[in-house]
Design a protein that fits this description.
With 155 residues, this protein is α/β, with parallel strands linked by helices. It contains five helices and six strands, in the order βαββαβαβαβα.
Length: 155
């Protein structure tokens, strides 16, 4: 069951997630923050907070319950594991009937990249597409010129 326009923001203790949350707050939107440690969110005393982690499926199900849309910031894990954690979040959103997802990926997400995290982001994007949930994928360009350094990788 969804609350009319409740928006879930993950990664709210980080730079991007907290910026999104501040913007939603300024707009007067109803939002929920998924955090591992709610004490780190002193900037949002009025915001609804739910404790959770991409590795804890039950916590994700609680976080997405009643949500109409969500901004999913990339979590951190070792190469090869990150996409599995993102898949947990995407599936929780799907189970909850979330109407729209925004996922923060990375520029150069590709199965052929020599940058290990680009593989994970590519896989994450595929997992998101497989859910059938309408979505937008944003590709952050946090590492400039990495493609030039990777030109000799054998696939």
């Amino acid at each position: 069951m969804q609350t009319s326009d409740l928006i879930l923001v993950t990664g709210a203790t980080g730079k991007i997630g907290s910026s999104i949350a501040r913007h939603l707050q300024r707009l007067g939107k109803e939002f929920r923050l998924l955090v591992r440690d709610p004490k780190k969110l002193s900037d949002f005393p009025e915001a609804e907070k739910v404790i959770g982690d991409y590795g804890d499926v039950e916590s994700l199900d609680r976080a997405f319950l009643g949500v109409s849309s969500a901004f999913i910031v990339s979590g951190y894990a070792e190469p090869g594991e990150r996409a599995k954690l993102h898949r947990n979040a995407f599936h929780a959103a799907q189970r909850a009937g979330v109407r729209y997802l925004i996922y923060l990926s990375t520029l150069g997400a590709s199965p052929d990249s020599c940058f290990p995290m680009s593989h994970d982001h590519y896989s994450s994007e595929q997992f998101l597409k497989e859910t059938g949930v309408p979505h937008t994928i944003l590709r952050d360009s946090f590492i400039p010129n990495w493609q030039c350094r990777c030109s000799t990788r054998k696939v």
